[in-house]
């Protein structure tokens, strides 16, 4: 269950990051990004802690939501990196960490789900 605790903790870290951005910069915290991307990232201030709380409470829905978040957040960040900022993976440590976290979540979710309820 260490994986569950790590995943929940990192989901909370992401929620705090997006929440702080919202509080400091309003509903369009990432002025360089299109509106839909701002909306998506801002929504993670709600969805990340929901997934973490469900995981902590032993719910499969938490693992499922964490997978949906990672399966959408990684492509969104990849698009922002390559398509908008014209950067690359090697120069984006945040994207590197997110990709590693995505591998952890998506790679362990099937086994983790067996130990969770409803």
Question: Judging from the principal axes of the Cα atoms, what is the shape?
Answer: globular
- Report, as a whole number of angstroms, the end-to-end distance: 17 Å
Q: What share of the residues lie within helices? A: over 70%
Tell me the β content: under 5%
Overall mean pLDDT stands at: 95
Structural class: mainly alpha
Number of helices: 4
Return Rg in Å.
14 Å
Poorly predicted runs of 5 or more residues = none
Secondary-structure element series: HHHH
- The total beta strand count reads 0
Largest sheet, described in full? none
Please describe what this structure looks like.
With 118 residues, this protein is mostly helical. The protein has helices spanning 2-25, 35-56, 60-84, 93-113. Helix 2 (35-56) runs antiparallel to helix 3. The two termini are 17 Å apart. The mean pLDDT is 95.
Write the layout of secondary structure elements.
Layout: H1 2-25, H2 35-56, H3 60-84, H4 93-113
Helix pairs in contact: 1-2, 1-4, 2-3, 3-4
């Amino acid at each position: 269950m260490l994986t569950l605790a790590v995943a929940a903790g990192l989901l909370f870290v992401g929620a705090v990051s997006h929440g702080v951005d919202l509080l400091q910069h309003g509903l369009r915290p990432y002025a360089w990004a299109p509106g839909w991307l701002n909306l998506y990232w801002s929504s993670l201030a709600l969805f990340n802690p929901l997934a973490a709380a469900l995981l902590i409470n032993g719910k499969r829905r938490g693992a499922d939501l964490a997978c949906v978040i990672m399966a959408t957040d990684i492509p969104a960040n990849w698009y922002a990196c390559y398509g908008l900022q014209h950067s690359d993976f090697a120069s984006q440590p945040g994207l590197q960490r997110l990709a590693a976290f995505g591998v952890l979540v998506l790679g362990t979710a099937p086994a983790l789900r067996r130990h969770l309820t409803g």
